[in-house]
């Protein structure tokens, strides 16, 4: 096989980079990181590895730019020519390159945010809370806008769904490289720059030598600790910082000298250690341990913050006299902790506010170590003492000390409590029915039944230990009747016995399938009359939470019909709640991929039906999305600001009127699209033999071997039906095959059924739900590749199904381009388009290696055990790399 000449290589890369308007800083970072990786590959001890990587890289770039069958065949031939061991190394090299490229892009994004100090690039009311509040004030008046702001709530819920393909060790290495890039930006050149680059080379070498695949699946406790890293590294400090930034925007120079107007609007939730739907490894013991780990982290943070703030309050009593309430608080704290109080008073004789904060820090420590003599029984006690300090400072004229660092501590307690994130339990409705049947039979209970009852007792223990906010939401998967919800209260009574007191439970229905979404309002109307539900509604001021599942509805009726059904369900549920005098919070079970409700959150929020948000937005965040949105402090602050702005603005009269009017005007379009897309989707998934064909043409079955998370990939074992397959591997498998079918299939047929390009183009401008759908599909299609898809589909020996998929892909692509305009996908989103184009040929290289492995694994006769093991490893290495390249897993 002839290698590329130097002239050919320069020409291929030059034509690829031509017209890609890459910012020079990104280009410089990518070039440096790529050179460092090249050095590592050359030094790795494997002869000619770098040359082989370059050959495949140049071939896939040429195939991407030329789009000729000959160029593609050349790239595939190179991928097939490697030995298995060399193919492994090449796959690892491309995966490492993606990690480094992703790092460079994230680093540049952070660099830009720092240069702007987090400010939005333009006066866009959907882009920051400050601008959203200004528009809201203009529409409804300042007093009403402040009321809306005071009620604002953003509630992300972290889940352990298995979608983070890279190992934690790899993430840690990338984070260290990020820190070194920061150093490089600040270096003066010369010796200092050489030192940093040498350290970066060492880190890239570590990245290369770190096994990219986890040796075994993480346990639920491992997943809990991984989430804690996000809290420790970013959220604990970034959330109060975003409150401050918003307060600065709203109050200007007065911020920090007067009481803040921004409420502590973020609340964290977690399913990690609590979600047992289909995960036998999440037990009551795990749930208890998860609550303890989270509390340990937040109490340690509060202890350190209180001590740090206290050390800084060196305000003399003559300039800042204590209030009577502060003096009384000192006397109470001193009596409870005499030795420490005496020592602190000796070191701070005339600094009363400092002394109080240092003793408060000791009380927080006692709460963490369970010292009953000093411990707080609830975070409200701590808040009460902090506010005594604040009021004393204000009375003494030290308002800036009251509303400065001390206010950040107050915000942290209000946001995180002593529990950090509310631990939510989820279980399948069928499990509840089975356990209740066992109880009613009078026979000895099974291990499953005992475990379900023990979970309820664990919730009660967590509430007693960490407060009611620590746990209490109980989500019922596949809610199909009011009885499914009432069953949780029946189980709670059974768990504590006739003389016991059940925990306080907010039972949350999860409506997932199309039929369940349709039935939701009727089920809700029935359940609120149930005694336990009615009582809890009275206690909460008639607040009710309802969860909507994006994943299974999309797998059930296709992405188009599911999107429209979810909109209609929200509309009907919101209307019912308004008529029933209920304050509704809709909980969106979204994933990172488009087939699971992924895409930009703020545009999705602004497209929701009137009164379905009303200043409250709750959603699941999972896998790679958690680290992408919250792994860096600057990005986390920007994300929270944008989402909160959309949540605040969504209930503005202008937005509500626009959404309501568009839904009415395009109702006929929606109906046509719904029927046509559903028929087309069923034509595919209900075809005889579809499920085993799907398992053959994608790496679906092999994904179960990838140690992504503790949760099994399917609820059962059969590949004869999709009903038992979880939505995550359904989406993940299509993504790996470069088809992304779960996010778009049926849309082309739906648009063709409408047939009116002019009307659809106007709808794209005027109908937010439609625009969001089209933009998300454009992104999914841009990350797909028809040439590579054909080779995956050919593995299944079903030309009819393969043709159906490819025809729909081309039809959808054609309609989306014509509706948006610009001649190609993502023409209206140049930054995203550039990022996708720059990655695509490198993803193609990994796809060709994956195809090689799949082709041999699917061959007849099957490879022997030794060869199959090697091919399986290559396949999983390529899966990890494609996930890194596309930045979409499940």
What is the total number of structural domains? 4
Largest sheet: 8 strands, parallel, barrel
The geometry reads as globular
Structural class: mainly alpha
Beta strand %: 5-15%
Distance between the termini: 38 Å
Helicity range of the residues?
55-70%
Number of strands: 8
**Cα radius of gyration in angstroms:** 29 Å
Notable characteristics:
eight-stranded parallel beta barrel; TIM Barrel; 890 residues; mainly alpha; 40 helices; de novo design (two linked rop proteins); 6% strand
What does this structure look like?
The protein has 890 residues and is mainly alpha-helical. It folds into four domains: 192 residues, no CATH class; 156 residues, de novo design (two linked rop proteins) (Up-down Bundle), CATH 1.20.1440; 218 residues, TIM Barrel; 224 residues, no CATH class. The protein is 67% helix and 6% strand. The chain has an eight-stranded parallel barrel, surrounded by ten helices. Strand 7, helix 25 and strand 8 form a beta-alpha-beta unit. The relative contact order is 0.10. The mean pLDDT is 90.
């Amino acid at each position: 096989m002839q290698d590329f000449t130097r002239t050919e290589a320069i020409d291929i890369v030059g034509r690829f980079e031509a017209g890609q308007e890459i910012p020079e800083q990104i280009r410089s970072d990518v070039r440096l990181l790529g050179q460092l990786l090249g050095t590592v590959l050359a030094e790795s001890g494997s002869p000619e590895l770098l040359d082989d990587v370059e050959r495949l890289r140049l071939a896939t770039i040429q195939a991407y730019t030329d789009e000729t069958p000959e160029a593609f065949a050349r790239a595939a031939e190179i991928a097939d020519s490697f030995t298995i061991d060399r193919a492994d190394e090449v796959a690892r090299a491309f995966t490492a390159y993606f990690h480094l490229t992703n790092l460079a892009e994230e680093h540049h994004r952070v660099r830009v945010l720092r240069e702007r100090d987090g400010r939005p690039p333009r006066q866009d009311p959907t882009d920051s809370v400050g601008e959203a509040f200004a528009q809201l004030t203009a529409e409804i008046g300042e007093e009403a806008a402040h009321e809306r702001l005071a009620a604002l709530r953003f509630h992300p819920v972290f889940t352990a769904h298995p979608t983070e393909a890279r190992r934690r060790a790899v993430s840690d290495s990338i984070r260290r490289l990020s820190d070194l890039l920061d150093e490089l930006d600040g270096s003066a050149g010369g010796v200092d720059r050489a030192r940093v680059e040498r350290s970066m080379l060492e880190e890239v070498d570590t990245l290369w030598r770190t096994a990219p695949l986890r040796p075994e699946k993480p346990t639920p406790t491992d997943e809990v600790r991984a989430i804690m890293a996000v809290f420790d590294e970013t959220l604990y400090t970034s959330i109060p910082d975003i409150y401050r930034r918003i307060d600065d925007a709203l109050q200007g120079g007065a911020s920090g000298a007067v009481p803040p107007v921004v409420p502590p609007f973020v609340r964290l939730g977690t399913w990690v250690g609590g979600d047992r739907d289909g995960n036998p490894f999440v037990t009551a013991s795990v749930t208890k341990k998860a609550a303890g780990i989270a509390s340990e982290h937040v109490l340690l943070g509060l202890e350190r913050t209180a001590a740090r703030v206290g050390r800084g309050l060196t305000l003399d009593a003559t300039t800042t006299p204590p209030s009577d309430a502060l003096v009384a608080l000192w006397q109470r704290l001193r009596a409870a902790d005499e030795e420490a109080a005496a020592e602190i008073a000796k070191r701070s004789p005339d600094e009363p506010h400092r002394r109080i904060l240092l003793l408060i820090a000791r009380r927080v420590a006692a709460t963490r170590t369970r010292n009953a003599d000093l411990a707080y029984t609830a975070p409200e006690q701590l808040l009460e003492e902090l506010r005594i300090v604040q009021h004393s400072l204000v009375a003494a004229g030290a308002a800036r000390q009251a509303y400065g660092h001390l206010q950040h501590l107050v915000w942290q307690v209000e946001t995180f409590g002593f529990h950090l994130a509310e631990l939510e339990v989820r279980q399948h409705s069928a499990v509840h029915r089975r356990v209740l049947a066992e109880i009613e039979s009078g026979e000895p209970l099974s291990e499953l039944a005992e475990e379900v009852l023990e979970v309820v007792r664990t919730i009660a223990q967590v509430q007693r230990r960490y407060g009611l906010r620590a746990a209490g939401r109980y989500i019922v998967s596949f809610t199909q009747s009011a009885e499914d919800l009432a069953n949780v209260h029946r189980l709670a009574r059974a768990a504590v016995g006739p003389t016991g007191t059940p925990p306080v439970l907010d039972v949350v229905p999860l409506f997932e399938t199309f039929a369940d979404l349709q039935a939701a309002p009727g089920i809700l109307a029935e359940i609120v009359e149930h005694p336990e539900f009615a009582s809890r509604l009275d206690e909460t001021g008639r607040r009710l939470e309802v969860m909507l599942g994006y994943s299974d509805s999309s797998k059930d009726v296709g992405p188009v019909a599911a999107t429209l059904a979810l909109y209609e369900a929200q509309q009907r549920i919101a209307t019912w709640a308004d008529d029933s005098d209920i304050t509704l919070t809709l909980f969106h079970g979204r994933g990172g991929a488009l087939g699971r409700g992924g895409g930009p959150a703020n545009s999705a929020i602004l497209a929701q039906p009137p009164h379905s948000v009303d200043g409250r937005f709750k959603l699941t965040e999972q896998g790679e999305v958690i680290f992408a949105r919250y792994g860096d402090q600057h990005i986390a602050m920007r994300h929270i600001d944008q989402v909160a702005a959309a949540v605040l603005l969504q209930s503005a009269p202008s937005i509500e009127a626009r959404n309501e009017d568009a839904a009415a005007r395009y109702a006929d379009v929606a109906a046509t699209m719904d029927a046509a897309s559903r028929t087309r989707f069923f034509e595919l998934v209900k075809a005889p033999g579809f499920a085993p064909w799907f398992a053959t043409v994608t790496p679906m079955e092999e994904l179960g071997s990838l140690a992504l998370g503790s949760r099994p990939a399917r609820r059962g074992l059969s590949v004869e039906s999709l009903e038992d397959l979880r939505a995550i591997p359904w989406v993940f498998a299509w993504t790996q095959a470069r088809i992304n079918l779960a996010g778009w299939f049926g849309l082309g047929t739906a648009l063709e059924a409408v047939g009116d390009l002019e009307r659809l183009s106007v709808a794209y401008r005027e109908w937010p739900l439609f625009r969001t759908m089209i933009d998300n599909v454009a992104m999914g299609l841009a990350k797909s590749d028809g040439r590579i898809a054909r080779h995956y589909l050919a593995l299944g020996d079903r030309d009819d199904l393969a043709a159906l998929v490819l025809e729909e892909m081309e039809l959808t692509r054609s309609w989306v381009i014509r509706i948006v305009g610009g001649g190609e996908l993502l023409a209206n989103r140049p930054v995203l388009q550039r990022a996708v184009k720059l990655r695509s040929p490198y993803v193609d290289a990994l796809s060709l290696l994956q195809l090689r492995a799949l082709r041999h694994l699917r061959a007849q006769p099957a490879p022997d055990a030794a060869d199959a093991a090697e091919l399986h490893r290559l396949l999983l290495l390529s899966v990890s790399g494609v996930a890194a390249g596309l930045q979409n897993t499940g």
